[in-house]
Amino acid sequence: MELTELLYGPTGKIVSSICILVILGLMFMINVQLYMNRRKKAYFSLAVSFLLVIAQYVIILLLEMSSLPAAITAYVIQLLKVLAFIWINLGIFQLYNPTGRKLKLIAAALNALAFVVAALHLYLPGELSETDPILRFLAGPMLLEQYLIALILLAALFIRPNIGQTKTYLFSLGIFLLSHAIHMMDAYVLEESRKLLQVLEHLLPVLYYTTLFFIVFNRIVELLQAVFESSIIDGLTGVYNRNYIMTYAHRLVKRRRASVIFCDIDNFKRLNDTEGHQEGDRVLKAVARILRDTVGDAGKVGRYGGEEMVAVLDNAAGDVKKIAEKIRKRVEEETKVTVSVGYSRYREGVTAHELMKQADEAMYVSKKTGKNKVTAYTTRTPKMLASLQQ
Questions:
Q1: Alpha helices, DSSP H only, in the chain?
Q2: 235 burial class (0-12, 13-18, 19+ CB within 10 angstroms)?
Q3: Is the predicted pLDDT of residue 2 greater than 80, yes or no?
Q4: 46: which of 10, 81, 256, 285 is 20 to 30 A away, CA to CA?
Q5: CA angle 298, 302, 306 (to 5 degrees)
Q6: Neighbouring C-beta atoms of residue 47, cutoff 10 Å
Q7: What is the per-residue pLDDT for 264?
Q8: Confidence class for position 68, pLDDT limits 50, 70, 90
Q9: pTM of the predicted protein model
């Protein structure tokens, strides 16, 4: 078999259909799994759309490899194509926007209209449509084809501005429109099919569904990344939460290179009581920003709880004292508050929890001996802390 035979004619249609079914099968399984885990309506809509397209191309394969009634089967394929397009674009819209009642009504109306158009063709009496040109148009196969073109234009006008990846989405619509236009020319205009048009008619759908795969896949990755980040990021300050920062500390302790800087905002309760919680939140954000900027690539910053911030550094000694003092100084200069700071370096046999506790104890010494200062944890710190608590 020559290569050109794979691009046009019955063989070309079979090859392109198989390629599309592979792409759609992967997308269908991904979206079903995501819907089962997340219950997001976009995944359900996309799964329905891919199932419709899979049905469409299974029928195409059966049509090419058997003797099914061509006319009626071709119209069923076209109806599935229209319904799939509605559900695909509904799913893409839902990936970026909430599903409201208005959207549900619009989607239901578009699906119902597709069935009405199909019913006119299938059930309108032939003798009536032959005598009346309007009824002949309504009963003809072209009405469903033109309805799909209208849907493509509506998608470009109303869906494209409300989603991300607008250029890629517009490119996919252009490919789909070109593919459909070639199909209409081949089916209704040209008396004899041209090889170039056949090649394009077979290849363009593969390109369309490949582009669609990347649109959907990229958005799903964005959504999963956002879910992951929300599980490890403190919503107010934008730094890591306590669970993640402890996990990070455990990882560095195993590598024997962790240091912890523990900061507590001085007189924070008084600030909240006198100036309000909004001002307190603003100060928390500012202190978190200073820690994040000062630590940079040397480690990670997290909110340990309330007004307590920690920095876990990826080194055993190094510039821990310098970084801690710089944090204290910047907070004093750039905000209306000060911080009491304590730090601890990794020692043999120390766990992440113990390292965090040591830095906390050193911070408490700073707090009890004048505030707005930096204290290093040493072997004498527990005795000093005990004397301060008496």
A1: 9-38, 41-65, 70-96, 101-123, 126-131, 133-139, 142-154, 166-184, 195-232, 242-254, 268-275, 277-295, 320-334, 352-368, 381-389
A2: exposed
A3: no
A4: 10
A5: 150
A6: 22
A7: 94
A8: low
A9: 0.73
DSSP string, 280-321: HHHHHHHHHHHHHHHHGGGEEEEEEETTEEEEEESSSSTTHH
DSSP calls for 314-363: SSSSTTHHHHHHHHHHHHHHHSS--EEEEEEE--TT--HHHHHHHHHHHH
Q: Is 220 exposed, middle or buried (0-12, 13-18, 19+ CB in 10 A)?
A: buried
The phi and psi torsions of 372 (rounded to 5 degrees) equal 50, 50
Sign of torsion over alpha carbons 260, 261, 267, 268:
negative
Name all domains of the chain by residue range, CATH numbers in brackets: 3-232 (1.20.1070.10), 242-389 (3.30.70.270)
CA dist., res. 340 & res. 336, Å (int): 14
CA 383, CA 389: separation in Å to the nearest integer?
10
pLDDT, residue 209, reads: 92
Decide which of 354 and 317 is more confident: 354
Residue 382, pLDDT above cutoff 90:
no
Structure tokens at 188: 């209704």
SS3 (DSSP) at 65: helix
Structure tokens belonging to residue 52: 């419709």
